[in-house]
From TrEMBL:
SUPFAM superfamilies, per database record: Homeodomain-like
Residue stretches making up the HTH tetR-type domain: 15-75
Keywords associated with the record: DNA-binding, Transcription, Transcription regulation
Gene3D superfamilies for the chain: Tetracycline Repressor, domain 2
Name the UniProt record assigns to this protein: TetR/AcrR family transcriptional regulator
Any one Gene Ontology molecular-function term assigned to this protein's record: DNA-binding transcription factor activity
PROSITE patterns membership: HTH_TETR_2 (PS50977)
Signal sequence, renumbered to the chain: none
Domain of life per record: Bacteria
Feature: DNA-binding region: 38-57
């Protein structure tokens, strides 16, 4: 992804400085929202001069594309770690399989909420920082869901697997992300279930939908 707001880090010292700033930003994001973090805050946390930050980045918003890259890298690793072999998918209980997958996804989102919240909000407020890269993430996720449904199509009522894959990813991601990122400031506030119990509820909603036949 091209980032015209940041100077490319090519030299060893520049790469180390950029990593220090990203580590500092992540630490600060665990304590407060992106908008509440100033460049002096970032410099102090990284142990560098304020001028060093501005030599690397036009402004703090220029860090958002790098946060997005961090999110996508960690997401890909999590998906690889949580992947289930095809033979396991075809032999496992579908409801339990969905619960296991939802638990893993929700746990990951909560662990990385400090990063995703910044990327999610700033990407909407300043779409030029991320551009169309979100769409590729959703296309990859959609392809994965479609492949999963192909393996279990004999155990579900939905016959249109393309539509089912779309709805499955929409239901799951909307619920999991909303609850993890904005629990106290959205509809998740009224939901008493937390952690694995919440993930199980969303898995059961998806399971119910997949079990239904066409209207």
């Amino acid at each position: 992804m091209s980032n015209s707001f940041a100077r490319p880090a090519t030299q060893t010292r520049s790469i180390k400085t950029q990593q220090k700033l990203m580590d500092a930003l992540e630490a600060l994001l665990r304590e407060k929202d992106f908008d509440a973090i100033s460049v002096p805050d970032l410099a102090a946390e990284a142990g560098v001069a304020v001028g060093t930050v501005y030599r690397r980045f036009e402004n703090k918003e220029a860090l958002i594309p790098l946060l997005f890259e961090l999110w996508t890298t960690r997401s890909a690793l999590q998906m690889e770690t949580a992947a289930v072999k095809a033979e396991e998918v075809t032999s496992a209980d579908l409801r339990q399989l969905l619960r296991t997958q939802m638990r893993a996804a929700y746990s990951f989102i909560r662990e990385q909420a400090h990063i995703l919240r910044a990327v999610h909000l700033q990407g909407r407020l300043r779409p030029q920082l991320i551009g169309e890269d979100w769409k590729q993430l959703w296309k990859d996720a959609l392809a994965g869901n479609r492949a999963f449904l192909e393996l279990v199509k004999d155990r579900i009522g939905q016959s249109d697997l393309d539509r089912a894959a779309e709805m499955m990813i929409y239901i799951a991601n909307t619920a999991l992300v909303e609850k993890a990122l904005f629990n106290e400031d959205g509809p998740g506030y009224v939901v008493s279930a937390e952690g694995d119990a919440f993930a199980d509820e969303i898995a059961d909603i998806v399971y119910g939908y997949l079990s239904l036949g066409p209207a």
